[in-house]
Amino acid sequence: MGGHYTPEMKFTGNYVMQYLSFALLLGAVVFYVGWSIAYGDWNDIGLYSLSIILILFGIMGIVLSHFRIKQEEAQARQL
User: Is the per-residue pLDDT at 78 higher than 90?
Assistant: First the structure.
């Protein structure tokens, strides 16, 4: 984090979005591995399609929230 990080910042929208995006990413991986172990099928196209969408949304959310956090920190430094 930046030098201007305060404990209250972890409850702002961008940090919440980052945590939820990470949970989405982790949930997608757990879903894929769990389903594949439970049903013994690692090559299911439906499983791939759902998992990839969830993983991509998780990655995009993490990246976008990271950029927004950095932008907020830069704006706070200018004040």
Answer: no
